[in-house]
Structures are given as structure tokens and as C-alpha cells.
């Protein structure tokens, strides 16, 4: 209990100094509640407005695919270079060190695997996400898939209700079925549907005409890397996405299947946060690959 007889009269009122109303660094997010913004600010660097998310949730539908056979050996050493980690709860609880204090984007829907029919999923209980103190939850949507579209949009909608109740942002992930055109028209539709159903972040794929996809999506977009490309091409992909208005990447295979994953994530980070040109980022990648440079801090662009 404060000492009542030492109740000093306040004198520093700053009369004449207007209280600044700060804007917010992410589009479409200014009207969200404080807790949601606080969590989003852990994921997206307030100085750059961007994020390098490291995705290693692949095992929850694919099992021990290349690069994530031993998350403790291959992914944990990369975590310090990422702004946010995206994974499923089993790996989070068993392998991700809580002492790292990195924001987590939790894969929050599950149900089927590549062995049967993908995306027939249910969402996890929001209380479990709260218990793990995650900074966002991610839900897959299968837009255009006549079997799974309705169930997956319902999942996203419900998760957005639960997320807003507890201040947890929701990422809508756009799955692309084998038969769907991977073009700006499809991704514009899919991203917009996610945002309209309550997603605070949308994860989609880069395509030609991506500026249309980002323009018509009212919330930040991050891109998945997709299948493994040569390093320079993956850096070009990230660069083009950022120049076209993406707020970051949520990359998996192009990082952890790289010949040097630690160098690759640092090069991707330079593209995302410093607008480094792909050629320069590739030079950085090669420099960081040299054994004598592995622990060094890269120069600012
Ligand atoms: C699929 C996902 C993955 O996390 C996503 O595909 C990112 O990984 P990659 O860069 O390897 O494509 O959301 O459910």
C-alpha cells in the first residue's frame, strides 16, 4: 500500500505539449485492440513494418520431410535469425526452446495429411494457443476446393472470433489445390476472402502481377517460399514480393533445404528489412557461407 502521507502533488503536466497520437506500422490494423497490435508488433518489426517468419510446420501433414527430420538439429540453430517462428504445437512443446523468447505463429488447424485428403481440418482450442503464449494463429483455407472450401472458411471465421476475443491475431493461409491456376486473379480472390473473413495477416504465394494481390488485400500479406529454388532465384522471389507490397515472407524449404540455411535466412532478412537487391543478397549469402564468416554480422545495405 502506498504511503498516503507522502502523496505529492503532481507538477509535470506538460501543458502546451500535445500528446502524440502515433500511427501503426501495418496496414488495416490501426483499429485493432491493443493486445492484437502488441502481438503483431512482435512479429512485424515496427521500424521496417516487415517480418521474416521461418515456417517449419511441414511435418504436421508430411511427416519428416527433407530439412525437418530433426528440428532440434536443423531448425533450432536458425531461430535466432527469424522474426517469428511458424510451427505446430507438438514441435513447439517438444523442441522449440521457450527461453528463446521468439514470437510464435501457431499452426492452429489440423485433421488430415498428404496420405488422404488435405485440409479437412478442425481448429485447435484457443485456450491451448493462449497457454503457449503465441503471437498469432494460422488457419489454412482451401478456396476453390469444392470439398474443403466451406469447412476451411468456417474454421478461419471461428478462429477470428476466438482470436479477437483474446487479442490474438489470425493468419489466413491460402492453400492452392493441384488444379488451381496460380495467378494474380486467384490469389487476389483468395487473399481478399481471407481478410474479409477476419484474417489479420494473409499468407499466400508470389505470382506475376502480385501488386494487384497486395493492393486489394486490406491487411498485410506474407509469402510462402514454395518448393526449393536455387538460392538466387529464391532471393529474387522475396525481393519481387517485397517490391510488390508484401509485408514479409513466411519461408520454409527455401531456407531449411538450402545448402547453407543460416546464410540463406540472413540473406532473405537483408532483402526483406533492408530492400537489398537479390544480386547483393546472393553475394552476402556466399560471403556468409565461407567458414571464416559464419558468426559475423552482415554489413547494412
Ligand atoms: C503450408 C504452409 C507452410 O508453412 C508454407 O508452405 C511455407 O513453407 P514453404 O516456404 O516451404 O512453402 O503454410 O501449410
Summarize the structure.
The chain has 301 residues and is α/β, with parallel strands linked by helices. The protein has twelve helices and ten strands.
Explain what you see.
- Strands 1-2-3-6-7-8-9-10 form an eight-stranded parallel beta barrel, surrounded by five helices. Strands 4-5 form a two-stranded antiparallel ribbon.
- The mean pLDDT is 95.
- It has helices at 34-43, 59-62, 71-74, 89-94, 126-131, 149-166, 184-196, 210-215, 231-243, 253-256, 261-274, 278-289; strands spanning 51-55, 84-87, 104-107, 109-110, 122-123, 136-141, 170-174, 201-205, 221-224, 248-251.
- Strand 7 (170-174), helix 7 and strand 8 (201-205) form a beta-alpha-beta unit.
- The protein has a single domain, classed as Aldolase class I (TIM Barrel, Alpha-Beta Barrel).
- With 301 residues, it is an alpha/beta fold.
- The longest helix is centred in the middle third of the chain and has 18 residues, at 149-166.
- The structure holds ribulose-5-phosphate.
- Ribulose-5-phosphate binds next to strand 10 and helix 10.
